[in-house]
Amino acid sequence: PLAGVMPYQWKPEFGSRIGVMPLAGGADRIQWFDIDPCYVFHSVNAFRRGDEVIVDVCRMTSMFDTAVNDSLGGEPSLRRWTLTTATGAVADDVLETVNPGDLPSRDPRRVGREHRFGYLTGTRENAHTVELGAVIKHDFASGARDVWEPGPTRHAPEPLFVPGDATDLSDDAGWLLSFVHDDAVGESVLAVLDATDLAAGPVAVHVAQHGEVGHRHDPHTRVAVGLAVGTELLEVLGRLDPGLLLQLAVRRRFQARLRARVAGPDVELRERRIYRSDGERHFHPDDPIWWVHSD
Fold first, then answer.
1. In which element (H, E) is residue 276 found?
2. Does residue 251 carry a pLDDT above 80?
3. Which of 26, 217, 229, 265 has the most CB atoms lying inside 10 A of its own CB?
4. Neighbours of 64 (CB within 10 A)
């Protein structure tokens, strides 16, 4: 932060709660559910089942707690919160605590609908930063997990799930796309993984760029990623649902326009002032966590 002081503080005495608001309702119809103090950056998905609202989240016990120096977050876990709107009851189920994963993805056709699988990024032990590692497929029905570990010097950021055959509605019938950076050789590749057989590794890998993947907040080091697309990757991409590809393209354009609308026409100048001005940074640009924010 430019002021040299972290703008966020951990205040567990204020408590934590979840608000559920009907889609057709207003703020006066929010139903509140008290939960144990925690911090959540990302949710896998949420859906309704009768009187229950079910939310799967990547939970941390705390965040920005200067008393215990947990600037990288407290103990992580994958949780399922079941909120019963008829009674106000809350169930907090711990699904995974060993490398539970974060930066989740899911079949976009299942957003807001009941899902079976979620896709997450694993982390490695590193006292100095958040070091990304494997791609994880979690089965929320059985608790089983499939993992692809790219290698000790490689980091796989958040995977993007793209459905394959439009007639197959299984939420692992498709592909996971991930840019994987290799510290050892300074190379980034686009890895395409079969979501039904994640542990088998990529079905196609193509060099995206020699050197570090550009950080999205840094206009000075941002680079255009050019893919050397070969016949194998073209064959895989040819099996993707064209409607989903169009949806992703429209979403990206909408995000860019919304960002400009909110931040204003001088968004690039404001980026430089926030991210490139002299001053302390929560993470150093060489930390692997910065690679998560690559375009």
1. helix 267-276
2. no
3. 217
4. 17
